[in-house]
Amino acid sequence: MPRRVVITACSAITPIGYGKETIVNSLRQGKSGVKPLRDDGLLTDHIHSRVFGTVDYPIDYGFTRRYTKTMGPVAFYACRVAGDVLAQSGLDEKFITSGRLGVAFGSTHGSPTVQRNIYKTFFGNLKEEFSSIGAVDYLRSMVHTTAVNITRMFGITGRVIASSTACTTSSQAIGFGYEMVKYGMQDAMLCGGADEYDTTTVAVFDNLLACSVDFNDTPERTPRPFDSDRDGLVVGEGGGAVLLEEYEAAKKRGATILGEIIGFSCNNNGGDLILPNLDGITATLKLALDDAGIGPDAVDLISAHATATKMGDVIEAQAIDAVYGDRPLVTGLKSYMGHCMGTCGVIELTMLLYMMEQEFVAPTLNLDNVDPRCGMLNHVRELVEQRVEIAALENFAFGGVNTCLLIKNGRHLT
Amino acid sequence: MRRDELQTKILAILEDDFEFEHPGLDDNLRDEHGFDSIDAIELLGKIELMLGFSLSRAEKEKAMSIRTINDILDYIEKIQASHQQ
Fold first, then answer.
1. Domains of chain B, with CATH numbers?
2. How many CB pairs under 8 A join A and B?
3. Alpha helices in B1-85 (DSSP H)
4. Domain total for chain A?
5. Cβ within 8 Å, pair B45-A131
6. Choosing among B39, B59, B83, which should be mutated to test the A contact, i.e. which has the most A CBs within 10 A?
């Protein structure tokens, strides 16, 4: 018998702030976290796009060397938000270390900062006869570094799922975590993702002509999801985590329930690894509704993937139109912070939970003139004070991977 | 390098790079300072840089039985002696 899965804690480090108060204020005030691209002394001068969703405020981590010795920058984000949700949840150490709590957490490619230091040993002038590659560089940079640094820091002994599917990394982590709890494999899952500042990712999208280049002098005006003048995505950084629990257990212990995950879908386009695919995305949205056992009319709000690429937004708009029509509100939260890659899904989920709790919907920033090809949707262009009961969270990735999560407002469940 | 010089350098490394607080020469490194196998490998890299030559795999494997700072100093003295021969 499938079990109900609820969200009992969330936290995010984002380009528009860390913590609920700061993030909500930024969303309400339409504040962008897109800034000039930081100089990395390597690639920056060769990249056309000079904007980045930037985390530029100090964070007091307070981690000791016992833990930091195996952590790259990406794991700092991951362990901070993981610690936040464990603290918020009120779960005791006995449960956390019982094996009934697992971790589903990922990043796009571990820690590029540490990987870059490894490459320096090959191309630099370091003394070859010595062990110039640090013994822990692999642990700091490996693709599952976020998940296992979390297990190490908090003594978590349950299942580990380290998804790494670019832009669907954290939405997959949440979806797979949901399935772990729903089908009784684990009683709780700590899920999320993180990605650190990395210009190689910017360079990749820049080379594919997918990055924004027309607003280098006015970073806050890009990205522009669904807008006629959109010119591509903006890469960003950050981290986010949610704690998923089986509903009856959460209710019994008196946990605050922020939301319920009622549906998840994940599929592949089965072909091209880059181009958006209308059939694939449409199928994703329908599969999520089927999983939840609801019709499209039950969904009030859609958090679109909406990266502001020229074709991606059009294909997504067509898929939303085909499945939902023009009834639900549609917002593109990447307009505030750029595309935080592997962590975008969990950051957008955290923002949805905040908006559900505080009964408002943040508009898509920079949506000055809706592209007629995206104009059939019910775009949120000004802040709406409205209670949302069910929201859909859409994320799509290179490799043709698509995800959709359906979230129900949790207020009535506490 | 004399033992007292080695001791000064090793204590500095342990305090500065490994965040040891008040290290004692006969403290159990694992129990009292959380020093684990990862740290041991890292320390061997720093010892190589300090001595100015590479350690063989067999020499490195002998380091895995080290338990105290005095053990580290004994180990380095033996390595130095064998490389001087």
1. 3-84 (1.10.1200.10)
2. 28
3. 3-16, 29-33, 37-51, 57-62, 69-84
4. 1
5. yes
6. B39
